[in-house]
């Protein structure tokens, strides 16, 4: 494991967000060093997805700052956000592949949008290389509906990393997968980090997976990060919510 | 009881105004993104093909039978006072001004509007719309602009096809079936039918096309709640489009005269 650099890639400061009367985030402070993997762990409804959507500017906070690679993205309009979003790749919970397109068209989509100077053969090469990184080959002409859940997720990652982003966001990457596929997806996250040197943010409620892939874990509970640190540190957290959450896994193992 | 009913009407009215506001906002958004590069030519052609070319057959068929039914019924009426020669003008005026735009728009709503709404709704609930956004592609420009433009462009063209087929249906019933002379049908129709009548139908077609595509996009784009939500959005879109066509028909007609 490489030592995380000191410069934070993503920094969230005093982030607050409410939907109507429902206060989802109530003062989040989080710093994610460049090149590291941070898992945001928490139960359902703890605000994990909302926090992630702020990082990529899909949601605007009521209060606070979100600094991505040195830029505060909160005041940004659509044009600036589009520029910042090119630093990101996002892997969605259900992969969110375009089901009207083949795997090749899906993975090459960002290239077609943002690297118009590339020739078709060059795109094919890049797509092939990225699919190889996620451990897939000869699937280019298949449609997402013909793939298994694990394969779809890998295609989703290939699409997310095709423009060589600095940051990859994973939205519940292991939810709904069997244990073997879960293990495979964990490896995929570790490989992506190792091979591409990306900063990864994973939101998850899967404790085993979190402890496997994370350099840092931030535990989100009722809109606040109540504990954060290296996995070994979190393991000994005294916060009752963290203890309870972790005991559901470590208690049995 | 009564206050409850009034309350419900009020809430319904609020919801209605909110929807109109949502549609207007979406229209502005679509307008804004239509004129920004990059032009999504490929997506536009795909939609032109789907909305327009794909609807030719059902619109033509609806046109022929509308013309035939209308000729048949008006023949029965005009026969009473020996004015059969007016069947041609009656059929052609009714078709070009009213039936062609209204029926074409209804057929396009059923065939293309429903598909647009379910497709966009499914893309929304499976996060494909969010995926576009995270890939720095504006979903309004990528998904909605081509669909709305396709409605605006293709429905008037379909109205022309309906006009032609409707007249042919009317001709067939009056001349071939009922035995009116071809010359009478054609000269009388030429005498009464003005380019403005055809123009009125085309303008209506454009308004309806824009409206139904906008409604389908609006409902689909804002769908939520899985398969059930998409189904509900589609039902709402179909009802609103169909009702909207008749309501707009009256007002466009009034404004044009």
What does this protein look like?
The complex is a heterodimer of chains A (253) and B (257). Chain A is of the alpha/beta class and 253 residues long. Chain A has a domain at 1-77 and 207-253: Rossmann fold (3-Layer(aba) Sandwich), CATH 3.40.50. Chain A is 38% helix and 25% strand. Chain A is built from 9 helices and 10 strands. Chain B is mainly alpha-helical and 257 residues long. Chain B has one domain (2-256). In chain B, 87% of the residues lie in helices and 0% in strands. Chain B has 9 helices and no strands. Chain B has helices spanning 2-34, 41-52, 56-79, 87-125, 128-134, 139-177, 182-192, 195-221, 226-256. In chain B, helix 4 packs antiparallel against helix 9 (226-256) and helix 8 (195-221) runs antiparallel to helix 9 (226-256). Chain B is globular and about 65 Å long. Chain A binds chain B through residues 56, 58, 78, 82-83, 85-86, 88-90, 92-94, 96-99, 109-110, 113-114, 159, 169, and chain B through 122-123, 126-128, 130-131, 133-138.
Query: Would you tell me the overall average pLDDT of chain A?
Result: 85
Query: What is the spatial order of strands in the main beta sheet of chain A?
Result: 6-7-8-3-9-10
Count of beta strands of chain A: 10
Low-confidence stretches of chain B: none
Query: In the CATH hierarchy, what is the architecture of the domain at 1-77 and 207-253 in chain A at level 2?
Result: 3-Layer(aba) Sandwich
Counted by DSSP, the helix tally of chain A is: 9
Shape category of chain B: globular
Order of helices and strands of chain A: EEEHEEHEHHHEHEHEEHH
Strand coverage percent of chain B: under 5%
Mean pLDDT reading of chain B: 91
Largest interface: A-B, 23 and 13 residues
Order of helices and strands of chain B: HHHHHHHHH
Estimate percent helicity of chain A. Answer: 25-40%
- Determine the N-to-C terminus distance of chain B: 44 Å
What structural class is derived from the secondary structure elements of chain B?
mainly alpha
């Amino acid at each position: 494991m490489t030592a995380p650099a000191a410069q934070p890639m993503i920094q969230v400061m005093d982030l607050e967000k409410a939907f109507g009367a429902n206060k989802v985030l109530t003062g989040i402070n989080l710093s994610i060093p460049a090149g590291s993997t941070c898992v945001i762990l928490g139960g359902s409804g703890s605000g994990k997805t909302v926090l992630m959507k702020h990082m990529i500017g899909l949601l605007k906070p009521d209060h606070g700052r979100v600094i991505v690679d040195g830029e505060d993205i909160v005041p940004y309009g659509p044009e600036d956000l589009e520029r910042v979003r090119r630093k990101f790749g996002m892997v969605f919970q259900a992969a969110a592949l375009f089901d009207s397109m083949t795997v090749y068209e899906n993975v090459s989509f960002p290239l077609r949008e943002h690297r118009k100077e590339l020739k078709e053969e060059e795109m094919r090469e890049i797509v092939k290389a990225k699919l190889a990184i996620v451990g897939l080959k000869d699937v280019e002409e298949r449609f997402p509906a013909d793939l298994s859940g694990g394969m779809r997720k890998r295609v989703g990652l290939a699409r997310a990393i095709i423009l060589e982003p600095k940051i990859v966001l994973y939205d519940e990457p292991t939810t709904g997968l069997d244990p073997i596929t879960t293990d495979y997806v964990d490896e995929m996250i570790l490989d992506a980090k190792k091979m591409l040197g990306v900063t990864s943010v994973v939101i998850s409620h899967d404790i085993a997976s979190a402890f496997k892939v994370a350099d840092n874990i931030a535990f989100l509970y009722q809109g606040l990060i109540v504990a954060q640190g290296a996995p070994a540190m979190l393991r000994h957290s005294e916060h009752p919510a963290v203890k309870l959450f972790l005991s559901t896994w470590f208690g049995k193992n | 009881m009564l206050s409850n009913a009034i309350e419900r009407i009020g809430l319904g009215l609020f919801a209605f105004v909110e929807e109109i506001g949502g549609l207007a906002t979406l229209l502005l958004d679509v307008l804004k993104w239509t004129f920004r590069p990059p032009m999504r030519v490929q997506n536009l052609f795909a939609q032109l093909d789907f909305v327009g070319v794909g609807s030719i057959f059902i619109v033509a068929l609806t046109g022929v039978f509308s013309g035939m039914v209308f000729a048949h019924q008006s023949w029965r009426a005009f026969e009473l006072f020996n004015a059969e020669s007016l069947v041609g003008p009656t059929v052609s005026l009714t078709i070009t001004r009213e039936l062609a735009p209204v029926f074409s728009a209804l057929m396009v709503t059923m065939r293309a509007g429903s598909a647009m709404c379910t497709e966009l709704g499914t893309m929304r609930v499976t996060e494909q719309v969010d995926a576009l956004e995270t890939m720095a592609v504006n979903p309004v420009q990528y998904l909605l602009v081509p669909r709305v433009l396709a409605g605006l462009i293709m429905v008037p063209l379909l109205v022309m096809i309906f006009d032609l087929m409707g007249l042919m249906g009317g001709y067939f019933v009056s001349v071939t079936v009922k035995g009116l002379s071809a010359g009478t049908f054609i000269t009388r129709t030429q005498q009464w039918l003005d380019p403005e009548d055809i123009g009125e139908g085309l303008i209506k077609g454009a308004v309806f096309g824009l409206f139904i595509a906008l409604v389908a996009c609006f409902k689909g784009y804002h769908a939520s709640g899985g398969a059930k939500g998409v189904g509900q959005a589609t039902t709402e879109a179909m009802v609103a489009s169909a009702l909207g066509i008749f309501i707009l028909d009256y007002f466009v007609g009034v404004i044009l005269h």
